[in-house]
Structures are given as C-alpha cells and as structure tokens.
Design brief:
- This protein starts with a strand and ends with a helix.
- The longest helix has 19 residues, at 471-489.
- The protein has twelve helices and 29 strands.
- Helices cover 22% and strands 38% of the residues.
- The radius of gyration is 26 Å and the shape is globular.
- Helix 7 crosses helix 8 (456-467).
- It has 527 residues and is α+β, with helices and mostly antiparallel strands.
C-alpha cells in the first residue's frame, strides 16, 4: 500500500450540510492525500489532465488493471443522521472502449468498505461496470446481507443502465442505512436506472472508506474510466450534464457517427451536417446548401428511413430506404436516446478538416436542440485512385511495362476478398491504442507493432490492407483532429497544443497542419 499526492480541490463543511464533500481535480488548490490499492507505480495507470475533464480544467483517468483503485479513508459512523436519511455519491463518468474482446466481464467501479459492530469488514454496497457478450456496457449494483453471502443484484432498467463509450454521464448512487435495512438507488443523467434493499444480518458501526477505479482485471474491452467532480451530498444536485453529444471518426471511405440525446417520444428528426472547414456556401439555410464536395446534409428519422437533400440549392427532401444508403450500420433508438451511424463518404470530397454538426427537432415538444460540434479529417485519396484514369489510358496506349508496374502496386494495396479475422482484431487493437496514446510523443512504428505483437513490416501490411493507410499516417490524422478541437475550444498556444497531441516539435506540428489543411494553426483558429 502506498500514498501518493493528487492535486485536488476539496470543499468540506459539516457532516450534516447539504453538500459536505467535493473534489474536482482542478489541481490549483491544496494537496489532499489519497491511498492506492496496488504496488504498481501510479504513473502507469492514473493521470490527471484537461482531456479527462467533463467540467472545468482537469479530470481523472484510471487505466485498467487489478486493483487500480483510489481509496479515501473517512471513518463515518453509520448510526448518524447522514446514513439514516441517506446520501448521494455523485460523479461524472466516461468509459473509453478498449481492445476487441469476447464474452461477458465486469469490474467494481465504486464500493464502500463497511465495518460491522461484530468486527471484520467487507464492501457493501458496490457499483459495477459490466461488458456483455453483445459488447454493450452497463452499470449495475450489488447489495449484501452479510459478509461472504451471495450478493443481491439490484434489478435495473436495461435502457437506462446502458452506457455508450466516449460519452459523459452524470452518475448518482444513493445509499441509506436505517436500522437493519440497507437500500440504494442508481440515477444516470437524472433518470432512475434501478433500486433495491436488503435486511442486514449484522448492523454496521463505521463506513471505513470508499474506493473508485478498476476493482479487478476481469473487465475486457474497456481502456479507461474518466471521472470528474466527485460530490457527496444529502440531496440530489440540480446541476445537469448536457445530454447531447456527437462524435465523428473517419474510417477509410466511411464516417462513424455516434449521437446521444434525451429519450424521445412521438415524431422527431435529427438534421446532420458534414461540412468542409471554410466552406463558403449560402448561410440562408441552417447548414448551408448541399455541395457534393464540401457540404453534405442529412435528415434522420427513427431507424427505418433516411431523408437526404439530393438537389443543390433545393429545400426539398428525397426519401430512400436503408438499403440505398450504402451503410452497414444504421440505428436510431428513440427510447435509449442513442444513434449509431456509418455513412459511406462519396469520392471527390475536399481533403482536410471537416465539421460534424447536428440538431434534434422534436415535434412532440415543439422544440429544437443543438449538439456540440465534432471535427474529423477527410484524407487525401491515395495516389493509385487519383491516377487510376492515367493507368487506363496508359494501358490503352500500349505502355505495357509501365502498366504492369502500376497494376502490381495496385494489387498490393487492394483489400483481400476475405481478410483473416485476426487481421481485423489486430487492427482494432492498434486503432484503440492510437486513440488512447496519441499524446505520447514516443509512440512510433516500433511501439505500435510491439503492442500488437507483430513486426513493423507486418503491422504496416495488415493495417494498410484493412484501413488503407499505415498506422503512423492514422496516428498523424488523430493528432491533427485533436489539435483542431483544442484550437477552437481553448486558448492554448500552438506549441502547447503540439506537445499535448503528441508532436515532439512544434515546427513539425506546424508543417503537418499546414500540409493537411492549407492553413497555419493560427489561421485555422481565427477563421
């Protein structure tokens, strides 16, 4: 067991005030001592920084591993008014998806260590994260009557307990001990996900401590927990997390979009706009006029149909069935408030930074809501696509030798008809690692290949076959995408951003940024 210091902002009032404990990880106030539950160096699995913050300037990231948990010792009496009336353990949570995994797995996220009056100690209640066989992620709670018994799994509502990776959620875990009864309730983004109660065999004397993080190493497919603004209070807080989120990530010739929004009833639409940075189209419409190279506009309704704007300058929407979208992934779940889209990007799009914007229009509530903006990059098309017509002409003209060389290169870059499943899993693993560690300036082709257990040449061959680009090229795109977000949302200098997103030299960052977007970082920020 070892101590380490984390810079925290701690507000403590009396035990019976409405809010008596708060930690927001801002790092500009006094130092508060915590405990860790593993002998591993804390630097290997815990980080504090702005990229992990839901609110403010800093948040906490905990990486997976056996007992990668923080512990706070409190020694609170369970026969106090605090426990008889109950308290809420509030925090913001974001789950980052990890390498591909099969089967069901779980881990503790938060648990309370209780000391019965008869002696000994055990955790009760506990809040856990579960990854199911279908890859969905859920929260659930456990209650015990006594030490070493089979815990009661609190029945939860399936839709309310599900969490989407990459999105922030406001979690409120209510705990009450009154006499011989222990009860708890779980609220996610203000909605009750479930509640339960048990009769205690032995009354408690003290709450010794609480823990948060990865309680064991059995959870697969999750790369990190991001947490912010831990608050313990007697009342539920009125502050609410923005329930709207939008993420967009380019994959080869398609774009993966994930949208979260409050559950909807009745008729509603989501207008989605994908626009090139600096597109100077007409501002007379909400997202500008349709432009096949620079500005795409969709209107999404439920999951059975898609509406799209098919004629430039027209306000008319044409309807098409799902099979016409060319999209293998297309789902909008109104009751869960989630949409997963994979949009096939047409050829000829302007390369560089693009913005994804969305607005939800509810006819039931006669209201409209804007999603936060997301940034993604449309890469330059590979040379063999740009020169495909040249190859055809060369073949017609009888330039056989040159055509054979080009055809050989084309075959090398082409996707196999049936790629081994191990290739796709290796690429998913590498891509997840790139998204998690892009800020590491030491991340290079050797480190990437070593992570996947492949040689550098084999890792590049596999990744190129599946993604159409090398791992290093993809890493550069991810870093530039993150830099675009920081330039628009912070006041950090270009040099600070360069180091934060993983470039070892600001000059190299400036050169890569200018090449990708035809703008300097300063020009991009100002436009």
């Amino acid at each position: 067991m070892k101590h380490f210091a984390v810079f925290l902002l701690l507000y403590a009032a009396t035990l019976f005030s409405a809010t008596f404990y708060r930690e927001d990880f801002e790092g500009n106030a006094r130092v508060q001592s915590w405990m860790t539950t593993t002998e591993e160096p804390v630097e290997q699995w815990l980080r504090i920084g702005p990229e992990f913050a839901c609110e403010g300037n800093a948040g906490l990231r905990i990486g997976p591993g056996p007992w990668h948990m923080l512990r706070k010792d409190v020694l609170w009496k369970t026969d106090s008014l605090l426990f008889s009336q109950g308290f809420y353990f509030h925090f913001f949570l974001r789950i980052e998806s990890g390498p591909f995994a099969l089967g069901q797995s779980f881990t503790d996220l938060v648990h309370f260590l209780m000391i019965p009056r008869s002696g000994g100690y055990y955790s009760n209640p506990s809040l856990l994260v579960e990854r199911r066989a279908d890859s969905s992620i859920h929260l659930f709670a456990l209650l015990r009557q006594k030490k070493e018994d089979n815990p009661l799994r609190v029945p939860l509502r399936e839709q309310e307990s599900r969490l989407e990776p990459g999105a922030w959620y406001r979690i409120e875990f209510f705990v009450r001990i009154k006499g011989d009864s222990l009860s708890d309730s779980l609220f996610i983004n203000g909605r009750c996900a479930g509640q339960g109660a048990v009769a205690l065999v032995d009354r408690y004397g003290l709450l010794q401590s609480w823990y948060l993080g990865f309680g064991n190493s059995r959870l697969q497919g999750v790369a990190a927990f991001d947490m912010d603004n831990i608050i313990i209070s007697a009342d539920r807080l009125s502050a609410s997390l923005n329930p709207f989120s939008l993420s967009a990530h380019a994959r080869n010739d398609s774009l993966d979009c994930s949208l979260l929004f409050p559950p909807q009833q009745g008729v509603f639409y989501i207008d989605l706009n994908l626009g090139a940075q600096g597109f100077a189209g007409s501002a007379g419409e909400r997202f500008g006029v349709y432009d096949g190279k620079n500005n795409l506009v969709f209107s999404l309704y439920r999951s059975d149909t898609i509406f799209y704007k098919g004629v430039e300058g027209s306000n008319r929407w044409s309807k098409t069935c799902r099979s016409d979208t060319g999209s293998p992934v297309w789902s909008i779940d109104a009751t869960a408030g989630a949409a997963q889209l994979r949009i096939c990007m047409p050829a000829g799009l302007s390369p560089g930074a693009w913005h994804a914007r969305a607005r939800l229009i509810s006819e039931e509530q006669a209201a409209q809501y804007d999603f936060p903006e997301a940034v993604f990059i449309v890469p330059e098309r590979p040379w063999f696509f740009r020169w495909y017509s040249v190859l055809a002409v060369a073949a017609v003209l009888g330039l056989v030798s040159g055509a054979l060389v080009f055809r050989a290169r084309l075959r090398e870059a082409a996707l196999p008809a049936e790629m081994p499943g191990s290739w796709k899993r290796a690429v998913d693993d590498i891509e997840t690692m790139l998204l998690q560690r892009f800020g590491d300036a030491q991340l290079d082709s050797n480190a990437i290949a070593g992570h996947a257990g492949l040689s550098v040449k084999k890792a590049q061959q596999v990744y190129q076959a599946v993604k159409g680009k090398s791992p290093v090229q993809h890493l550069r795109e991810i870093r530039l995408e993150r830099a675009c977000v920081l330039l628009k949302t912070t006041q950090k200098s270009a040099a600070e951003i360069a180091y934060e997103v993983g470039f070892s030299d600001p000059i190299i960052f400036q050169r890569n940024f200018k090449k990708a977007f035809s703008l300097t970082p300063g020009q991009y920020r100002d436009q």
